[in-house]
Amino acid sequence: MSGNKDLTEGKVGKVLLRFSVPFFLANLLQALYGAVDLMVVGKFCSAQSVAAVSTGTQVTQIITSLITGFTLAGTVLVGRYTGMGKKKKVEETIGTTLVFFAVFSLALTLVFLLAVPVILGLLQVPEASYTEAFQYVTICGLGIFFICEYNALSAVLRGYGDSLSPLLFVGAACVCNIAGDFLLVGCFSMGAAGTAAATVFSQGVSMLLAAASFWRRKKQFAFSVRSLRLQPQILKEVIQVGIPVSFQECMVRLSFLYLTTITNRLGVSAASAVGIASKYDVFAMLPATSVGSALSALTAQNMGAGKKSRADQFLRYGTAVSFSCSLVFFCWAQLSPETMLGLFTNDSGILKAGIPFLKSCSLDYVAVSLLFPVNGYLNGREKTVFTMENNCMGALLIRVPILGFLRHEGIAWLGLYGLASPIATASMAGMNFVYLVWLKKREERREQPGVGRTVPLSSDSGI
């Protein structure tokens, strides 16, 4: 396939940067979707519209996280079978992935659209923002099919070692999204509904470009009735790898939605401040999330090829890069949080509420730089059950109880609410470290004298 890369050869540092930089740029452009939506609404609309979009994007991020977590299975399986040189298994994985997520997207769209009123009710969206939030979430829900198929296609390409093509698709979509925002909101005053329509259109563009590119590469996968069908064994593997990742992503997002629910009760300014800060969370954590996603594919290919020590090297390099980059946003948030908020709004109430929140929640930028690379490495080794358990415990047993306590005590200062995430993330990172030590000792015990390698990945999945 054009653009495919063998991730099992070459200098570790060079391969990591070559493969992860397109991940970073693609994630950066995807993050611009929500950021531009909020920025344009903040400049042309009222604080009520800002609160509607900030709450709406929290909801749609859960759906996106569910999908990207699930489609990661395609990356891991294609990477593993590519590393093992099993072409037929790769083809079966591609066909199963594309068909399954097409069906899954239609079912998810129906369920989501029916649940929108319930979701917004549970989030206790401010009454002044409810109508626009409903419009935003409903319109975005119509784009679920595009999100599913784009991510499925991109997951396959990344499993092959091609991280550049998905970047190009997202780049084109981002241009469409920005143009659509300014046209529909700035010129036609469509408010939150306009930003949602622009987002859905851009998602459709990225899916069509990915499908057209894939269609031209028939030497690797022939689109036909025979190839596009579900293979029971492959589907089982997709579910086993994908569901734990998808579930943990949703649980983490739900814990953040709980924060949104609490801050919505504190008024429009607090809700808007947290919404803006959440956009910076995305950008500040991009290096960590990008490295983590890249490590899933890098690890899968190298473990499939029996090169565990090389996979371990990628983890060490990736963590160092992630940590160094995250420090930049952390320092900005600590030294000048008002300039961060000022890029989105000039409202004095939002600035007053948001500054202490940014200072405390920015501690999470450093914590995730140690968490996400290890998560990506473990997911690439198909240790998704452990990462699910660890991330869910951090979200549900640490972050949510802290937020619940603050709410119960009637505390309104956002600075304390911002500490819930870094405390939870630091705990999860610590558990990852303990698990890595345990895993290494177990593998040392299982090594056969004179062989110098662990058992193949295919018999070493799960916990």
Automatic annotation (TrEMBL):
Residues passing through the membrane, by range: 21-42, 62-82, 94-121, 133-152, 164-185, 191-215, 314-335, 414-438
InterPro entries: MATE_fam, MATE_MdtK, MdtK-like
Compartment(s): Cell membrane
Pfam (any one): MatE
GO terms for cellular component: plasma membrane
Swiss-Prot/TrEMBL keywords: Antiport, Cell membrane, Ion transport, Membrane, Transmembrane, Transmembrane helix, Transport
GO biological process: monoatomic ion transport
MF-aspect GO terms: antiporter activity; xenobiotic transmembrane transporter activity
Source domain of life: Bacteria
Membrane topology label: Multi-pass membrane protein
Main location: membrane
Biological role: Multidrug efflux pump.
Family of this protein: Belongs to the multi antimicrobial extrusion (MATE) (TC 2.A.66.1) family.
Name assigned to this protein: Probable multidrug resistance protein NorM
The organism of origin for this protein: Candidatus Blautia merdavium
